[in-house]
Write a structure and sequence with these properties.
- The chain is mainly α and 188 residues long.
- The chain has one domain: LemA-like domain (de novo design (two linked rop proteins)).
- It contains 7 helices and no strands.
Length: 188
């Protein structure tokens, strides 16, 4: 009779441990999804700001058509990649960031534009959004790290394989231009 109680006790403890591990994995997976949704919110905000920025700049930059077209094209590609995985999305957003950097570098040649209040407000909004995107990417990658660790470490990896939990993909910079240091020049 004592052996039966011990067996039942062990089964109950194992079942409770399974539930705790499973619920922890669900919580971490949902945290990863939430972190990805936060990136989406900031990217949507950036995508919405870009047409206003391009329109404001267009009147001043008559000879910089190629730069404006590159930003518009990169925005379109980034929007189309919104349903893709983290790797593809990161690449498309990296291209957009690179195009925006080129646009803001070209703006330096137009003192009247740099003094325009609409442009300054849009530039400030874009800078703020870029900072939020960076923070959101960092939070997402931290969430993915915690989730992936849980899905790969013993004993939760056993529960993860039984529950169908798969490792998530990190949001990584794939555009070479984003990895380069920012060049600052005070010459005109």
């Amino acid at each position: 009779m004592l052996a039966l109680y011990i067996i039942i006790g062990v089964v109950v403890v194992l079942f409770i441990a399974f539930l705790i591990l499973y619920n922890g994995l669900v919580r971490l997976r949902n945290q990863v999804k939430n972190a990805w949704a936060q990136i989406d919110v900031q990217l949507k905000r950036r995508h919405d700001l870009i047409p206003n920025l391009v329109e404001t700049v267009k009147g001043y930059m008559k000879y910089e058509r190629e730069t404006l077209e590159a930003v518009t094209k990169a925005r379109t590609i980034a929007q189309q990649a919104s349903s893709a995985g983290a790797g593809e999305r990161a690449k498309a957003e990296g291209e957009l960031s690179s195009a925006l950097s080129r646009l803001l570098a070209v703006v330096e040649r137009y003192p009247d534009l740099k003094a325009n209040q609409n442009f300054l407000a849009l530039q400030e909004e874009l800078t703020s959004t870029e900072n939020k995107i960076s923070f959101s990417r960092q939070f997402y990658n931290d969430s993915v790290l915690r989730y992936n660790n849980q899905t790969q470490m013993v004993p939760s990896n056993i529960v993860a394989s039984m529950g169908g939990f798969k490792a998530s993909e990190f949001f990584e910079v794939t555009v070479a231009a984003e990895k380069e240091p920012v060049k600052v020049s005070f010459t005109q």
